[in-house]
Every structure is written in C-alpha cells, then in structure tokens.
Amino acid sequence: xTDRLERQFAFLNEADxxxxxxxxxxxxxxxxxxxxxxxxxxxxxxxxxxADQAGPGVSIDRVIRMLLIHDLVEIDVGDVPIHSRNGQAHxxxxxxxxxxxxxxxxxxxxxxxxxxxxxxxWEEFEAAETPDARFAKSLDRVQPxxxxxxxxxxxxxxxxxxxxxxEARVGSRIARGAPALWDWVREKARPRFG
Length: 194
Known about the structure:
Elements: H1 2-15, E1 22-26, E2 33-35, H2 36-49, H3 60-69, H4 74-77, H5 93-107, H6 112-127, H7 131-150, H8 154-158, H9 163-177, H10 179-189
Antiparallel strand pairs: 1-2
C-alpha cells in the first residue's frame, strides 16, 4: 500500500505542474491568459453544465474524467494552439509523438492498473472516435471560442484567424460531437468576423 500511495502522490504532484503551462486563450474577461489546469477544470464544468447537449449513450462521468486528464501531456509538450503560427503545428506527427512520450512518462508514474486505465482514457480522447470522446473534443473546442467571443476577439486577432479557419479547424470538431451546440456558437461567432 505504501508503494501505491507513493506512486499516486508522485502523479498528483506532477499533475500540479499543469497549472504552470500557459495557454494562448485568455480568461473570458481578457485580463490574462489561462493556464492548462484552469482550462481542464473549466472543461469539466462545461461537461457538467452542457450535458444536455450530449448525444445518446454519452456518459458525462467519463467525459469529465477525460477532460480532467486530456491536457496532462502539456506538462512536457506545452500548449500548442490550434491556430498557432509558431512552427509547432497542432496535430502534427511531431506533436503527436511528443504527446505520446509525455503520456507514457506521466501516466507511468501511477501504479500500473491506474496508469493504464487513465492512459487508455487519454488515448480514447485523442482518437475522438467514441461518443464520449467526440463530445469531450467538442467541449474542448467550444471553450476557447467562447473565451474569444467574450474577450472581444482575443487570440483570433493575435493569430489572424478567419471565419473559414474557425469553421474548418474548430466547427467540424464541435459539430461532430455536439451539432446543436455548434449551430448556436456559430451564430454567435459569425458576426465577429464581419
């Protein structure tokens, strides 16, 4: 039991580092950028509050668990914004490989049964093929959109994002897991782009 607790607390202490990872997205008031720990918490709250937007068969408990761990790999890799132009492409093979190495290290801190379970949940989120993961991915895309809308454009202005880019990079992911939610968000976002 002592070794198990040592490993559990090693993981929890490592997870605390997620609070140090700054994201491109600001808080909704635009006062500062959020950190990845705040983002993960906010997404779990999104899942709880927007559960009525989930499709049939979606387990909100599983979605919340996914969202709490989905960005832990950023401890090693950092945040790679979806609209970034800094050479590190969101979703690129290099980024995916770095994230896989980070997942191996971070989830490997845990006792094997727990580490394998959480790693499988993270991989399910990344693949976005199950109803739970598609809904979780939708929320992961909605939250920054709402932050940009509330902050007067936020990182959309910083990265020169166009409506077509938003539709292609974000809208398709949201619509895949929460179509009615994307319809509502799109109506809010469209006027922002003129």
